[in-house]
Design a protein that fits this description.
It comes from Lyngbya confervoides BDU141951. Keywords: Plasmid. By secondary structure, this protein is mostly helical. It contains 11 helices and 2 strands, in the order H-H-H-H-H-H-H-H-E-E-H-H-H. The radius of gyration is 18 Å and the shape is globular. The protein starts with a helix and ends in a 14-residue tail after the last helix. Bound molecules: fe (ii) ion. The site of fe (ii) ion has 5 residues, from loops.
Amino acid sequence: MIGTLNDYEISLITKFRSHPLFNQIDRIAWQNLLAILIQRRFLSLSIVNFYEFVIDALTDEPIKRTVRGILNEEFPRNTKGVPLPSHRELLFQDLLNLGATSEMILTTPETLITQNVRNESYQQLVRCLGEKHCQVGLVAFLRFWAEVLVSVEYSCLWQRISERLSSGQSQHKIRSEFYYFHMIHDSRNSDIGQESILGGLTHSQELAIHLKRLISSEEALIYCLKLQENAYQLKCQFYDQFINHLSGSPLALT
Ligand SMILES: [Fe+2]
């Protein structure tokens, strides 16, 4: 059964990678790319709420522990326990290093489409409540929306981001602390069911282990496939809003 979920996931990722925006990413004017990343930040800001919702809605202790652990990584500390910049602060810094101004990032309004995608994504989690396969549904949606597809998004956008930020040590470019990190640490990295603890697990893999454990019936499987499809559709809707603005003309978002 897990093989079906795995194959379906791969087919959705393949379709997502060929979204018109990603296909033509090299044609986007720099200012428009920044505008897309600034809109994308609104989804990142909602991640903490999503995780908190799922933690409260989960009754299965082992998954709750995993989800809590992933959320805590959003707020790193040094070895003495002193708080370091959160992942959202690192996102802000990456955007500044890409050439956005603080004012642009802080005053650009969220578009109606971004707002709808964010709200509708949250509602997907709310709708899991009371469903027969609620527990696995919450994990399936969260994993695909907030980890698997995030890594795919950043790997597609990295083609452009890497023009100005580096993945590691570079004399000429500042290191990306947010986009590169999430591209690697959120990625699915292996087929579901083939996770190996050797070398550490990505967030997608940590959650996949629970999916494998919880998908015990055809009915649960179908429910998860539907939630993955919905997550994919919502992410497409987010990027659809930019496809008419691929040339150098300024983005006119509504
Ligand atoms: Fe993550």
